[in-house]
Every structure is written in structure tokens, then in C-alpha cells.
Amino acid sequence: MAVLKTKKTVASVETFVKSVKDKTMQSDSQIIIDLMKKATKAEPKMWGGAIIGFGDTKLKYESGRELEWFVMGFSLRKTAISLYIPGTVEKQQSLLKKLGKHKMGKGCVYVNKLEDVDVKVLKEIIAASAKSNKTK
Fold it and tell me: Which of 7, 54, 58, 117 has the least C-beta neighbours within 10 A?
């Protein structure tokens, strides 16, 4: 069985964010941290070397395999911010249409910078996902 490489670490979120050279990404990160922290009521934690996650959950696959994961999170990539917001793709199409410039992945929303999106809509998306995940 494959071992999950991305696990929660004790690394500092603040140090990681400060290590990002792009000042816009640094400030965008702080806004996203504040939004996700408020929605999940959880402190940010580093997952692996580049993901900031909030809360703890257990994912269960159809195969029966289970793994520890975060409720929601994000990662700073070279050209975009990857937002891991469960249920967004399936359940929040109407909000995504209002979000602004973004791309979709299987379980991610990618934005180049927060300036490209409506942060109020992003806040709604994050809050709805956090609420939905609390009921599971």
C-alpha cells in the first residue's frame, strides 16, 4: 500500500509565508489564512512543505482506505494559488460563476492572485464548504 507523503508537520506557517518571494502572494496568503481560520475555527498548520491546512478530517475512499487530511487549505504555487475547498466543484457552481478569474481542477480552485477574484464571493465559498463539512 502506498504511503501518503503529505502529512501535517510542525513547521511554521508564518515562516513558510514569509519565505515566499512574491509580496502579493504573501499578502494574499494572509487574507486566505484569515478567511479559512474564521470559517473552520481551526489554526493553520503546514502539511508537507507547501500546503497550509485547517482542521482535521478523515478521508475514506471507496476502497475502504482512510487517511488523515485537512478540512480545507491552500498552497502557493509558482504562478497560482491552489485552493483546496471540498465540495466547491460539485455544490457551488453559482458562486463560482461570480468568483472572477479562476481555473478549476478536480478538487481545486486555482487563482493567480486575489485581485483577480471577488473576495466576498470567495469568503462565501469558504464559509459554505466549512459549514457543509461540519455536518458530515
Answer: 58
